[in-house]
Amino acid sequence: MTAQHDRRKPAVSLSPVRFTALIVWSFARTRWLQRFRTRAQVERAQQRSVTRHVNKLATMSPYIREVLEQAGGDFHKIPLMDKTIMMERFDDLNTVGINRDEALDVAITAERNRDFSTELQGCSVGLSSGTSGHRGLFVVSPQERAQWAGTILARSLPPGKLRGHRIALFLRADNDLYQTIGSRAVTFEYFDVYAPMAKNLDRLAKFQPTILVAPPSVLRDIAHAQAEGHLAVTPQKVMSVAEVLERTDEQFLTQAFHVPIIHQIYQATEGFLAHTCEQGTLHLNEDTVLVEREVVEGRRFIPIITDFRRTTQPILRYRLNDILLEREAPCPCGSVLTAIERIEGRESDTFLIPTTSGTLQPVYGDMVSRSMLYATGFSDYRVVQTNPAEFTIYLDTPTPQAHESVIEELTALIAPFQGVMPVVNFQPYSRDTSQKLRRIERTFTP
Question: By the number of CB atoms within 10 A of the CB, which of 174, 289, 327, 419 ranks highest?
């Protein structure tokens, strides 16, 4: 892989006809044309994509050119990126000459004014706080918006009927990236989670979505409104985004909306990373991203992402802060794309429990949420480890019976590790709807 001279330039605008054509092409390629029959085919295609993509980026991004030269042209020796690096080197990383401070100003102003129409250098700009609390920027060109739209529609629309769907999308921030999916074939309606829920429910009742997309916490609010008789919608497909879908939420939502499964879109600032198949299994989108693995334990790993379609703001060997658990058995759907049993939460939210030997024992977020699933007497909760010896647990039904059940289940979880049960402080449950819900959270650094 060799670097060439700098070719940074503003994104090229697309006419409506070309924009639509690129959506259709991306949809067809994802849905029907790019089908892998074996893992070997996947890996060969990824290797070709890596070589082609990195060589292209080296001509456009000063940062990529620098790290590639330092790595001696070896992709696997390129240092890992994370949100801190992406923000610190933003000006050298992006390929269209956008200034970080100007982009931040545009994104923050858009958030405050709830107007997301402003572009820079022909690109959409958005702000991402993530669940880590560290804000980041994403910059997307018209070409990338069209490719994203075609891909996500191909992954999202049910088999069979492709036209006439009404997609309701509940998100913290609107953006052209989301508006892209509106077309004659598919009607799109954005619902601002900052707006009063009663107002959103009135609009949702009139819209009558066939596909409902929202964070699990918002889906629960919608489901409760439906159960209380304030809403009557019958979506064919319900999709969870932005937050980790806990087992308790999944079970409740499938029953509330009368759907066999809750689909997930695993998407972050770093790209569209995984989707749920019709068998209910989450698959990595390995036709568009390379996922390297930093093994944590057994089948658990932290993903390192390279997105083949992102050139405006390259995502190259980007280390996420999530822990994924690979599925042990092949998925019945037959896909050779890696199957994920579940997203276990953020690496930084793995609990650290003191043991009788004086060490700190990692207890993964999914283990804690499973224990809360076994506990009874409440519906909504949060578990926060504030220090090694203390939990703060928020329950929506703070009764002595619920408290006893939670302590019993957490004690049963911790005992096999020779763990010392932390002190538990119970508090009433409340939720800040302007923030992503984190049911399992660790707030201290060891």
Answer: 289
Task: Give the pair of three-digit tokens for residue 17.
Answer: 């006809």
Helix, strand or coil for residue 219?
helix
Give this prediction's pTM.
0.82
Q: Which residues contact 46 (CB under 8 A, 6 or more apart)?
A: 286, 290
Tell me how crowded residue 146 is: count the other CB atoms within 10 A of its CB: 22
Q: pLDDT tens digits, the chain, 446 residues: what are they? A: 444 455 667 666 777 778 888 888 888 988 888 789 999 999 999 999 999 999 999 999 999 999 999 999 999 999 999 988 999 999 999 999 999 999 988 888 887 787 777 888 888 888 775 444 456 788 989 889 888 888 888 888 888 777 788 999 887 665 555 455 555 678 888 898 878 888 999 999 999 999 999 988 889 989 999 989 999 999 999 999 878 888 888 989 999 999 999 999 888 777 789 999 989 999 999 999 999 999 998 999 999 999 998 999 999 999 998 899 999 999 999 999 999 998 887 777 889 999 999 999 988 887 888 788 789 899 889 999 999 999 999 999 889 999 999 999 999 999 998 999 999 999 999 877 667 778 889 999 88
d(CA 79, CA 64): 10
- Phi/psi for 162 (5° steps) reads -110, -15
Q: Which residues, in sequence order, are CB contacts of 291 under 8 Å at separation 6+?
A: 273, 284, 303, 304, 305, 338
